[in-house]
Amino acid sequence: ELKSFTRMLGGDPSCSSAAEEDLLASGALGDGGARAPALGKLEVSSDSEEASEVPEWLKEGEYVTVGTNKMGIVRYIGPTDFQEGTWVGVELDLPSGKNDGSIGGKQYFKCNPGYGLLVRPGRVRRAAGAGRRRSAGLRLQGGPQTRRG
């Protein structure tokens, strides 16, 4: 112990590893190290379970926001071959996606290249712009009718 203390005072570059060895030997880091992976596994499984839950409103054809600014229509909800759990396939309004609805040679849904995105349900929100988009369409259709009537 005195040797380790002397190394710390002397600025010996190996002092940190000596201190870690002392802590490992005492079990201080050993227990923490054993707990950390267990907690990590629990966090990962709870995150993936939570992220895989599909809200009742989330259906194919629903207009959604992915992340903070990508918007599109849900084209697929279900399992994939590339990873366990439930995934949501979205055909984006703009070409900011990663695929054409297929990954690894399997087609989950169809869209133009660069418009497709597969994400966990937790990353998808009902789009606030859905009402705006629909009402914009109604305005375009309803505008001339109003003038005619």
Layout of SSEs?
Blueprint: H1 2-10, H2 15-26, H3 28-52, E1 63-66, E2 70-78, E3 87-92, E4 102-103, E5 106-107, E6 116-119, E7 124-126, H4 129-148
Antiparallel strand pairs: 1-2, 1-7, 2-3, 3-6, 4-5
Low-pLDDT parts are 12-50, 131-148
Overall domain count: 2
- CATH-level-4 superfamily name of the largest domain: CAP Gly-rich-like domain
N- and C-termini, Cα separation: 94 Å
Total helices: the number is 4
Q: Under the CATH scheme, which architecture of the largest domain would be assigned? A: Roll
Tell me the helix content.
Answer: 40-55%
Shape: globular
Specify Rg, calculated over alpha carbons.
27 Å
Strand and helix order: HHHEEEEEEEH
Lateral strand order in the biggest sheet: 6-3-2-1-7
Percent strand:
15-25%
Total beta strands: 7
Mean of residue pLDDT? 70
* The CATH class of the largest domain: Mainly Beta
Structural class: alpha+beta
CATH topology of the largest domain: SH3 type barrels
Largest sheet: 5 strands, antiparallel
Give an overview in words:
- The chain is an alpha+beta fold.
- It is 44% helix and 20% strand.
- The chain is built from four helices and seven strands.
- It has helices at 2-10, 15-26, 28-52, 129-148; strands at 63-66, 70-78, 87-92, 102-103, 106-107, 116-119, 124-126.
- The strands form two sheets. It has a five-stranded antiparallel sheet, with no helix packed on it. A two-stranded antiparallel ribbon has the order 4-5.
